[in-house]
Amino acid sequence: MRVTVCELNDAQDAFARDWEQLVAHVKAKASQLVLLPEMPFCSWFALTGQFDATVWQRAVAAHDAWLARLMELAPAVVLGSRPVNEAGRRLNQGFVWDQTSEYRPAHLKYYLPNEDGFWEASWYERGDGNFIPISCGAARIGFQICTDLWFMERGRAYGKAGVHLIVNPRATARATVDKWLAGGRAAAVVSGAYCLSSNRVSADASTVTFGGQGWIVGPDGEVLGLTSLESPFVTIEIDLAEAERAKSTYPRYVPE
To answer: Is residue 252 situated within a structural domain?
Structure first.
């Protein structure tokens, strides 16, 4: 399976340029799966702990509008997350889009930070706590949206459930890129699955300077690809059978 990760600009004028380049890259590389960053279709809004209903609704509407443009990445399967209103609740919903089924909800972000620049628990609610794999063709995929990644018991459970990929759409700062890559490598090792992540990026001195560095990590924690400002999109062919074989090797086989 040919998979693509990316870093896309937080500033929406630059994002539009990045999108056109991503579409061209995906077509040129014949990618079969594309992972987008966390809630990519608006500038980051959780900068303050004061919830603003108008800002929230604007973010929801922006993501609703951009869903129609996912077709531009077809025939690739597209994964990401977006803000939604559901049964009176505000949520961060992971999704899968493909030409056949179009939009499918996949996961609700559960672990929410609440600190300077990332006041997420003040803006929306945690999900239902279900971490259930979703199938995309032959691939079984587990979502861990941003902070979800750090709860390694979830990754181990995904491994026990036979996932081939853990996907981690995120919005994280430049100062923490090394820490996040370490988390992605650990998630791959405990699950015996590939770990993919895409991130926002920003070049200005705003409240949060997002760090980019999407990654593709192999089932034993080996770094197979990293994005950068110079190479914001990375596509690699992965072997799902490697993730299946990894389940029977150390440390995955060790009983709890």
So the answer is: no
